[in-house]
Design brief:
The structure holds 2 protein chains of 2 kinds. By secondary structure, chain A is α+β, with helices and mostly antiparallel strands. Chain A is about 50% helix and about 15% strand. Chain A contains 30 helices and 25 strands. In chain A, α2 runs antiparallel to α3 (about 50-95). Chain B is mainly alpha-helical. A two-stranded antiparallel sheet of chain B has the order 1-2. In chain B, α1 (about 5-15) crosses α4 (about 80-95). Chain B starts with a helix and ends with a helix. Classes of the chains: A alpha+beta, B mainly alpha. The interface of A and B includes residues 5, 6, 7, 31 and 38 of A.
Chain lengths: ~900, ~110
């Protein structure tokens, strides 16, 4: 026989089959089984040759494997039964702890799950369009500040389509940023989800047509497509195709050529109407539309980039020469005026709040990051809890482990048993987490402004992900006690008192500190956000927002404006009424202003608004130099402007009154002029996110502006119902056919901070969750440690310790941990919040109260948690304790 | 009552006397009945018989022929022998007179 056991002729059964068989044969019968088959193999081989022998061996081996597996399943089932019985007993015995364990993990899982849903939704905007990966929006990248602007010329889309082979389709979309009035017969409403585009819109964006078809819908002027919701508002159930609807402010009728399905919530373009417009006369200089392109397969912005230079040269040289008198290269290299084009993937638009596009409802990529991290932390904290508690409990079972080992259990069986129990707990957590998530969904929807429904949230794929997460937690939690306990030597564990097993409290302490650190950071963040919100709503803005009521859509009044304003001012409760193109908190266009005598290159873009002579009275603005517009002076209507202090500073004017601007924006040097007649004290016309910018106020000159600002008396503002009623009547009198829509300026302004308010609410929710989880964990741990120490407590009491002494003894360690957690949390929270506050140009500071409060709150919750057990232990009967075994 | 398969296995083990183990049992059964048993089924059946007390197992020394592995010999116990005897008697009682009827049936 050869040394490796093969026969002289070196023959052995096929190695793979041998190996497979080996895995199925259990330890006791293995030798016999392998031997029998090997002998059988030899026999066949001698008679019929190696090939037939191998085949017969395989056939026998495989069927043997089946038989063995079937035979051992009976044993497996029995063992499983035993595991289940033991698991149930243990769960019942430590009922409270099991409940804490399962609940803590469930809360963490549910929380992380909901946040995952939110993150997936936020990052998945606009993916529903066909070929969304190939759709881009073309932005202008300004040299001046490196910022990008989404507003481009109407000519860009056509030019891109013509000049680039890689561009298969292009479209332009103009979004109206003010409400306009639509009217059909007697139904009129102010609509603010209105787009202007044409047929090409449907080449790029996937839109479902309920009536009409994409090819014919917007292929001629003065046509409009409505959403299903809008159609039912104006037409009820009737078919609107072929009917005409009037856009009051444009004074034109539009033919309805299509009804489309409501646009989904996760689309950055939200619309109820799309109408066509005649853009002739608009050149490269007016930048007022968004340009979208679809690239051919295999193309990307990178492949298109090299051709950009030639494209710009071809299309813009003429315009630049005409408007600016310079050649293209000089223009593009000019640090103030030069720009280039940039392709932005459509799926990135929703989370991009850097590009200027005046679109509402943008998400913030910072939010996504913060919440993802917070979710991860909460999940980790919950898992850590689970592991901590499981480990502590497992220590009590060291005796059981010893006995089992004596009875013959192998390491594998023990590990299997502990893992099984752990996974059972975490499966219960999964069920509870799914239920929690379903119940919390309405609150979640309200908190985040989304509309996720339970069926979608708990879809098979999502539920499977949740299940895997919880099983993973169970495996991880069970792994440590499983491997640690199963390594005990039976003699040691059976002799020792119960509960001596895991004593390494260092790790548990570290975990408690970690949990409280996370909770404290979240607390401080919520605190700062709350503090900033308070600051924002109470900051001095430079105008009296509490007293102003805003009426929208006034442009349709035309020359009846003055008469109506006079009527309105006669209403008791109304102090004054002003007409303007924008009001603080709204949109302000920037236009190129050039001072008299300045060169063309010194033209600067300044925010512009138009108003009448009553704005200063109505808003409570203060003039610091010169005067505001006056109705008495005729020339004010055509050639006067007022600027704010920032504008004066920026233009370097020490004495601005009397200086002149070119009347026309970006106009030629020999045009008309307007004179600065006054300087206003700076007021916040943008939100407090931004620094106050320079502002130029021009006179409406009799033209109607979009907004009416109505200043109320203090009594009127406190009780506006009556005044509003009278204003509405007056409006109906003068603005026949236009709907009356109003809002309060302070509410409008506060709405600018909606995102922050929401973030604050979410942070508070996180705080509550993390504290609940941390306290649950702490409760469990404290329960265990007090139980361990019952004998010690009994002896101390006998030796004369008072209830107070015992309480201090038990809570001292916890208090220390909380303080340590705080110390770690303070710098971390500071860094995070400092970065968040950078969003705001005007912010509240950090007060020294904050760390103190967080420490106090942390200690409060910790002591509250500990007190229940600690007090019970401190008051327990020492006689009973000492007898406790 | 013994099942048919049990009976066949016991008979094979009995006739092999001291040489009854996996390979030989399979060969004997094939010789007597023509059925080719699989090893997997054989071990499970033999284990069941051992549990019922009809056979006993005996581990033997390793052999080079088996790649150095030992083998497991089976032997019919007294209880098993008794069961076989009962089965034989039952067979005789059951079949008394039947072969004649079959023959007459064929003739008719």
């Amino acid at each position: 026989m050869n040394r490796d056991g093969s026969n002289r002729d070196g023959s052995r059964p096929p190695r793979l089959a041998v190996w497979i068989l080996g895995r199925f044969a259990s330890s006791c019968g293995k030798e016999t089984i392998m031997g029998d088959l090997e002998e059988y193999y030899r026999g066949i081989r001698m008679e019929h040759g190696a090939g037939k022998a191998a085949g017969s061996y395989w056939s026998q081996a495989m069927s043997a494997c089946c038989a063995l597996a079937a035979g051992s399943i009976g044993w497996r089932m029995t063992m499983l039964g035993n595991n289940l019985v033991v698991a149930r007993r243990n769960l019942k015995k430590d009922g409270v702890y099991s409940l804490i364990n399962v609940t803590g993990l469930a809360i963490g899982l549910a929380c992380a799950f909901l946040i995952a849903i939110w993150v997936i939704d936020e990052t998945g905007y606009d993916r529903f369009h066909e070929d969304s990966g190939r759709i881009y929006r073309v932005n202008r990248l300004n040299r001046a500040d490196g910022g990008s602007v989404a507003f481009t010329s109407v000519l860009l889309s056509g030019a891109l389509n013509d000049d680039f082979a890689a561009v298969t389709h292009s479209a332009m979309v103009c979004r109206l940023d003010r409400k306009i009035a639509f009217r059909y017969e007697d139904r009129n409403f102010l609509e603010d989800r209105v787009l202007v585009s044409d047929n090409r819109f449907f080449d790029i964006f996937s839109v479902k047509f309920l009536r009409g078809s994409p090819e014919t819908a917007l292929n001629r002027p003065q046509t409009v497509v409505m959403s299903r919701k809008a159609a039912s508002r104006y037409f009820g159930g009737a078919d609107p195709i072929g009917k005409t609807i009037e856009i009051v402010s444009l004074g034109r009728n539009f033919e309805i050529t299509g009804v489309v399905a409501d646009c989904p919530a996760n689309s950055h373009l939200q619309y109820d109407f799309i109408f066509t417009w005649d853009w002739s006369g608009y050149g490269w200089g007016s930048q007022s539309v968004f340009t979208y392109v679809k690239l051919a397969e295999g193309e990307s912005p990178v492949s298109v980039a090299p051709l950009m230079g030639a494209f710009v040269e071809k299309n813009l040289s003429g315009y630049v020469k005409e408007e600016y008198g310079t050649d293209l290269a000089t223009f593009m290299n000019d640090p103030d005026l030069g720009y280039s084009f940039d392709f932005q993937p459509i799926t990135a638009i929703h989370l991009d709040d850097e590009t200027l596009d005046n679109m509402p409802g943008k998400g913030d990529i910072d939010d996504v990051c913060v919440f993802s991290i917070a979710a991860l932390f909460i999940l980790i904290v919950a898992c850590v809890n689970f592991i901590n508690l499981s480990t502590a409990r497992a220590g009590r079972r060291s005796r059981e482990v010893g006995v089992r080992k004596v009875l013959g259990a192998g390491r594998k069986e023990l590990v299997g048993q502990f893992l099984f129990e752990s996974v059972l707990s975490s499966s219960a957590s999964f069920l509870l987490a799914a239920a929690l998530a379903a119940f919390a969904l309405p609150y979640f929807n309200e908190l985040t402004g989304k509309a996720v429904d339970a069926a979608v949230a708990l879809s098979p794929m999502n539920s499977a992900a949740l299940l895997s997460a919880s099983l993973l937690a169970g495996l991880l939690a069970g792994a440590y006690p499983a491997f640690y306990l199963s390594s005990f030597r039976p003699a040691v564990t059976i002799k020792a008192a119960p509960g001596t097993g895991t004593c390494r409290s260092g790790m548990r302490d570290a975990l408690v500190v970690f949990q409280y650190t996370v909770a404290t950071i979240i607390f401080l963040s919520a605190f700062v956000i709350y503090s900033q919100s308070r600051y924002l709503s109470s900051a001095r803005l430079g105008f009296d927002k509490e007293l102003v009521l805003v009426v929208h859509g006034a442009r349709g009044l035309g020359d009846r404006m003055d008469a109506m304003i006079r009527e309105l001012e006669a209403i008791p409760g109304v102090v004054s009424v002003a007409n303007s193109s924008s009001l603080p908190g709204g949109q302000f266009d920037r236009n190129g202003h050039r001072l008299e005598g300045a060169a063309a290159s010194d033209e600067t873009m300044i925010c512009t608004m138009y108003s009448d002579a009553r704005l200063d009275r109505t808003l409570g603005l203060k003039i610091t130099r010169g005067r505001f517009f006056s109705d008495e002076i005729a020339s004010d209507g055509t050639s006067a402007v007022v600027i704010n202090e920032t504008a004066a500073r920026m233009l370097g004017l020490d004495d601005p009154v009397g200086k002149r601007f070119l009347k026309e924006y970006g106009g030629a040097a020999d045009g008309e002029y307007v004179t600065i007649i006054g300087v206003l004290e700076d007021f916040h016309f943008h939100s407090l996110h931004e620094e106050i910018e320079p502002l130029v106020i021009r006179n409406l000159g009799g033209a109607p502006g979009h907004y009416l600002g109505v200043r109320l008396t203090n009594e009127g503002a406190a009780n506006p119902a009556a005044v509003v009623g009278k204003i509405r009547e007056t409006w109906k009198q003068f603005a026949v056919g236009s709907p009356f829509e109003y809002s309060f300026l302070d509410a409008d302004f506060d709405a600018l901070y909606r995102a922050e308010a929401r973030t604050g609410r979410i942070m508070s929710t996180f705080f509550v969750l993390s504290v609940v989880i941390a306290c649950l964990g702490l409760y469990g741990l404290v329960s265990f440690s007090t139980e361990q120490r019952t004998k010690e407590i009994g002896i101390r009491k006998v030796l004369g310790a008072s209830v107070g002494d015992i309480l201090v003894l038990l809570s001292r360690r916890i208090a220390l941990l909380v303080v340590v957690a705080n110390l770690i949390a303070w710098p971390a929270a500071y860094l995070i919040m400092d970065r968040w506050l950078e969003n705001f140009a005007y912010k509240t500071g950090f007060t020294p109260w904050m760390p103190v409060i967080s420490c106090v709150v942390g200690l409060f919750f910790a002591m509250l948690t500990v007190s229940h057990r600690a007090v019970a232990a401190a008051r327990s009967n020492p006689v009973r304790n000492i007898r406790y075994e | 009552m013994l099942t048919r398969n049990d009976e066949i296995l016991l008979i094979a083990v009995m006739s092999l006397r001291d040489d009854a183990y996996g390979v030989t049992i399979i060969r004997e059964v094939e010789r007597r009945t023509g059925k080719k048993l699989k090893f997997g089924g054989l071990w499970v059946s033999m284990d069941n018989l051992a549990k019922k007390g009809l056979v006993e197992k005996r581990m033997a020394d390793p052999e080079p022929r088996r790649g150095g592995k030992s083998k497991c010999f089976y032997r019919v116990t007294k209880h098993g022998a008794g069961a076989l005897k009962e089965a034989a008697e039952l067979q005789e009682r059951l079949w008394k007179g039947i072969p004649g009827i079959i023959e007459r049936g064929e003739k008719a």
